[in-house]
Every structure is written in structure tokens, then in C-alpha cells.
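Attaching the record inline, Q. Sequence:
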Amino acid sequence: QVQLVESGGGVVQTGDSLRLSCAVSGRAVGDSDLALAWFRQAAEKGREVLATISRNGGGAWYSNSVKGRFTISKDNAKNTVYLQMNSLKPEDTAVYYCNGEVGSRAYWGQGTQVAVSS
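Structure, as predicted:
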């Protein structure tokens, strides 16, 4: 079992920054079989994958909607995954979720709300 707990959301203004955290338990974020990612879901929209990080932490993939503004990272010592979000826009308003996958099994946190006012 993998447990994920997100934190760091809030209400900010356009152009501000936030850093989301995802505390992982049940597995080490450095485990080679644990894939980690951040998703978000805006009101009345489907869940969107934003960023994934390679198992060794040496590479990452970003969706076009956040590329150049968001950065995914992980801290093996703290067993935590982060999403640094810069230059936030109103369209970034959503609930943000941490995702972990081991084989075919997916795990989700409870989500953290981010609201960006114009």
C-alpha cells in the first residue's frame, strides 16, 4: 500500500508562486518500481496529468499547459514529492492530486485546492 498526502494549496493572485508537497508512505520515493506524478482537476473537467518524474529523479515530463512554469522534484530523505508552481494563472485553479503507481495499481492523495484570482 502507498499512502499520499498533499499539502500546500491555497488562494493566490495571478503571477504568484506556490509549492505543493506530497508526503509518501508505504514506499520510498526512490524505489525503482514507483512512478510518481502530479495531476489536477478543475471544476466540471476531467483529471489532467501535469508532470511526471523519472524513477531515478534525473528527468521529468510536463504537459504543455505547465511547461516552463511548473517543476516536479522529489526528496528521498523526506520521502516527499514536490510541485513548484510559478507564474500562476486563473486557469491553474483546480484541485491538485499526487499520484503513485506500482505496476498496474494506482494510488491517489486526497487533493489540495489551488485558487488563482485575477
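DSSP finds no helices and eleven strands in the chain. The CA atoms of residues 70 and 85 lie 4 Å apart.

More tomorrow.
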